[in-house]
Amino acid sequence: MKKLESSLLNMVLVLTGVAVIMGAILAWVNSITSGPIAEQKDKTLSEGIKAVMVCNDLTVARVDTVKNTNAKGKELTYIVYQTVDAKEQVLGAAVESTSDGFGGKLRVLVGFNPEGQILGYTLLEHAETPGLGAKADKWFQKGEKGCIIGLNPQEPLTVSKDGGQVDAITASTITSRAFLLAVNNAYLAYKSKPVDAATGATKQQ
Question: Cα–Cα distances in Å, from 169 out to 12, 129, 172, 178?
């Protein structure tokens, strides 16, 4: 078998062939994994909604999209999951909200009752420092030092360092501010008029 001549054209052809093969392999892997990944995300969201609404037997009656513009002029999008219990009594809503933390995006799911009080929250995504900012998943929960459960963000929640009523995570003031900003924005989205809505009850299994 004749050895392939070393030339620029041959190198380009070989590299192109390798790129095409690798692209095909990646596309195949993606087609196999995209379904399970999407299912896992849906499961995580479903469990998160039940957790923040403090109710295991609930239904998402409507999903609203709310858009607001922040102080920097950037448009932010919030997803509001309006919920009812097994007797179709309004529970309130779980709201997805995102802000910029110390290490990156901080995506929070916050549950509100009809009066606007915080029922619970969970972190859906974050890139905060382990042992510091990452403590946000527990620091603001009921019984903890920075507890926000039961509070109403009608008056924006702020850390005590800024004259507010919430104790910041030790050595993680930036993360604490970002977290409370996400919660405050979630409340505003909950009280805002949605730009569109997907109706139809979805039982949370």
Answer: 54, 12, 5, 11
CB 53 within 8 A of CB 119: yes
Span 5-40, pLDDT tens digits: 567 777 777 788 888 888 888 877 776 766 655 566
- Determine the residue type at 56: N
Residues facing 76 on adjacent strands: 68
CB 79 within 8 A of CB 63: yes
Q: How much of the chain is in helix, strand and coil states, percent to nearest 5?
A: 35, 30, 35
Q: Is pLDDT larger for residue 28 or for residue 57?
A: 57
pTM (predicted TM-score): 0.75
Angle formed at CA 123 by CA 29 and CA 150, multiple of 5 degrees: 155
